[in-house]
């Protein structure tokens, strides 16, 4: 490959990386007006045969502030993230970490059994395991004669 083509290819790769960063920072969830002020953590939802797994990226979130609430098919995760105070900061060169309170409400793909929910937060990754509600087979319903 000639030097010009090689340099052109390198420039295109750098442009692709910069464009990816720009698009990630302008994601739809960040552009939408939120019900509450704050930021929204990245979340993945996986479905297995008998469970739903929810993973939330919560690096630096104060564990005492973390709450997970299930209401029907809605899962709400909330909490707060603050950086340690630095007394000697004179200038900020880069600012990307979102701070303050957050709340993220997710619609689950199916109904879950709330009694068997397990959650843990390790190394900044919240894992919520939600057992699916088991649907019964055929159910015979007794009809009461009317008057």
Automatic annotation (TrEMBL):
PROSITE patterns: SHSP. Coiled coil: none annotated. It holds the Pfam family HSP20. Residues 34-147 form the SHSP domain. Belongs to the small heat shock protein (HSP20) family. PANTHER family: HEAT-SHOCK PROTEIN 20 FAMILY MEMBER. This is Hsp20/alpha crystallin family protein.
């Amino acid at each position: 490959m000639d030097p010009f083509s090689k340099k052109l290819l390198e420039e295109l790769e750098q442009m692709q990386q910069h464009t990816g960063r720009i698009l990630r920072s302008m994601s739809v969830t960040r552009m939408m007006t939120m019900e509450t002020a704050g930021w929204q953590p990245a979340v993945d939802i996986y479905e297995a045969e008998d469970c739903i797994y929810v993973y939330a990226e919560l690096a630096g979130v104060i564990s005492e502030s973390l709450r997970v609430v299930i209401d029907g098919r809605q899962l709400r995760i909330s909490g707060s993230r603050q950086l340690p105070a630095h007394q000697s900061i004179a200038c900020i060169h880069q600012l990307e970490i979102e701070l303050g309170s957050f709340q993220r409400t997710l619609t689950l793909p199916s109904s879950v059994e709330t009694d068997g929910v397990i959650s843990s937060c390790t190394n900044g990754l919240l894992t919520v395991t939600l057992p699916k509600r088991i649907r019964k087979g055929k159910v015979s319903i007794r009809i009461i004669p009317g008057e």
